[in-house]
Write a structure and sequence with these properties.
By secondary structure, the chain is α/β, with parallel strands linked by helices. The protein is built from 18 helices and 17 strands. Helix 12 crosses helix 13. The chain has two domains: 139 residues, Rossmann fold (3-Layer(aba) Sandwich), CATH 3.40.50.2300; 265 residues, Rossmann fold (3-Layer(aba) Sandwich), CATH 3.40.50. It is 37% helix and 15% strand.
Length: 494
């Protein structure tokens, strides 16, 4: 035997191929050059108690959404990264325990970050950004596994998905491959094969989450009911849908998506249902239904479940009676829908739930406050502004729209703007009789022609909105080519 082969290997010569244990260990960036020992990051043990802040399914089938705003799973050891390399999604009972035991053997006893199918996986993945997600495919949980794999592909396409099951179960294996998983770990096969597959996944450079498209959100609200907030929101959303749908094919999106997912109108005001009446678009899937099922909301569900106007505008209307919803669930729903639509219009109306409105408004791109020329509206609007300030919503984020404006009244729009200390965005004229005539026929005032003063006012708001949020599609006003053209334009306006 050659004694030279027993000589210790120099420390400075690392192994050419890192082992699975090396790939599972994490060195914090701040310690890369300190020479400190590498601390192996154990996976968080799969335990329902560790996910008390994540929505879990109660015995009755309802979802418990009590949250404290943070994941209550055990924190990693000091000096380790917060990023979790692998997440396992498994079934309940003995099947889930079996796959966890097998994965512990594959990972040489490392603890595993496990979640059940009914846990809120999407929020955890969004926080942790794992390098791969393992999904258990078994006959007793085939449907949730397929649904989970498909939704992960839609929401997190940059994270590889690997199925875990038994190769001799052809139905499970076929279902997993049809979901587009990157690989299949056979629990009946050799452990070293599974270890090599996982080592290959972890050896790849982590793909960071791409910058997601988030639609701008325009919120309309008022301090009192009956100021035309829902009617203005319905017209504005309808006009936005027509304009964006006409320009979206040039953005490279598919024509069906461009037509159907341009604009979304969400009605959250009281008493609820007015927008659906104005648009003559009833729908069985309400805003409350969408909130309760926000974890299942994907592009396909947004296309098929939400009520659809003839123009392609999608609508979520407030159910009657109004049910209390958690602000965190509403925020998660808006974030999910913002990935699929180009613009979202929120009709908060007279603010049925002040606390909910205060949680949502900070995330809005534009906040438009409607007020008419009455002393009562001024008093209640002042009170609403105090509530907004108490919730750290600055006045400089709000813009005033004077609704039902009558120039014959002494209180002008400029005086109201100065009294409320809000910038004046626009003035909507008093046209209740004309609006009632067209609404009673089950229609709205069309954008063309613009001779109607109400349409002119909404068109001005639309142009401001497009210039601020969709400049590529905003119409550019061109100067008249001749004095005759300017005279004809003035004649058309009158």
């Amino acid at each position: 035997m050659n004694s030279e082969s027993l000589a210790p290997t120099p420390v400075a010569a690392p192994a050419a191929t890192p082992s699975l244990a090396d790939l599972l260990s994490v060195r914090p960036p701040a310690q890369q050059d300190t020479g400190a020992d590498v601390v192996s990051m154990p996976f968080l043990r799969s335990n329902p108690e560790h996910f008390s802040s994540i929505g879990t399914t109660s015995p009755g089938g309802s979802v418990d959404t009590r949250q404290d705003g943070s994941l209550t799973a055990p924190a990693p050891p000091a000096g380790t990264s917060q990023r979790v390399p692998l997440v396992l999604v498994h079934g309940n009972g003995s099947d889930g325990a079996l796959v966890q035991t097998w994965m512990h053997r594959v990972l040489n006893g490392s603890e595993l970050y496990g979640m059940r199918f009914q846990d809120n996986l999407f929020d955890a993945v969004h926080r942790q950004q794992p390098q791969a997600i393992l999904i258990q495919f078994i006959p007793g949980a085939m449907e949730p596994a397929v649904a989970m794999a498909s939704q992960l592909q839609t929401v997190f396409p940059h994270i590889p998905r690997v199925a875990v099951g038994r190769a001799n179960d052809s139905q499970c294996m076929l279902a997993a491959l049809r979901c587009g998983v990157q690989d299949f770990l056979d629990m009946d096969g050799p452990l070293d094969t599974a270890q090599q597959t996982i080592a290959h996944l972890l050896s790849q450079p982590p793909v960071m989450e791409p910058n997601r498209h988030q639609a701008p959100v325009t919120a309309l609200l008022s301090a009192r009911a009956g100021l035309g907030c829902s009617l203005a929101a319905s017209h504005l959303a309808w006009y936005l849908q027509q304009h964006l749908a006409a320009h979206m094919p040039h953005t490279g999106l598919a024509s069906d998506d461009a037509e159907s997912l341009a604009c979304l109108l969400i009605e959250m005001g009281s008493p609820g249902g007015d927008c659906a009446i104005y648009l003559n678009t009833p729908g069985e899937f309400s805003f409350g239904d969408a909130v309760s099922q926000h974890r299942r909301m994907d592009r396909r569900m947004a296309q098929s479940a939400l009520a659809r106007h003839d123009s392609g505008l999608r609508l979520l209307t407030q159910p009657r009676p109004i049910h209390a919803v958690a602000a965190a669930d509403v925020d998660a729903l808006l974030s999910r829908l913002g990935q699929y639509f180009e613009h979202i219009v929120l009709d908060l109306g007279a603010v049925a739930s002040p606390q909910l409105a205060m949680e949502i408004l900070p995330k809005a791109s534009d906040i438009w406050l409607l007020c008419d020329q009455s002393v009562a509206s001024m008093v209640w609007t002042t009170e609403l502004l105090k509530q907004l300030e108490n919730h750290q919503i600055d006045r400089d984020r709000l813009q005033l729209i004077v609704s039902r404006h009558d120039p014959r009244l002494e209180m002008s729009a400029q005086q109201m703007s100065k009294q409320l200390q809000l910038p004046l965005l626009g003035v909507i004229p008093e046209r209740r009789r004309e609006l009632a005539q067209v609404v009673n026929l089950g229609a709205l005032l069309p954008l063309q022609p613009r001779r109607e003063p109400y349409v002119q006012a909404l068109d001005g708001l639309l142009r401001r909105l497009l210039a601020a949020n969709h400049p590529a599609t905003a119409p550019h006003a061109s100067a008249p080519s001749s004095p005759w053209a300017a005279w004809l334009q003035r004649l058309k306006k009158h």
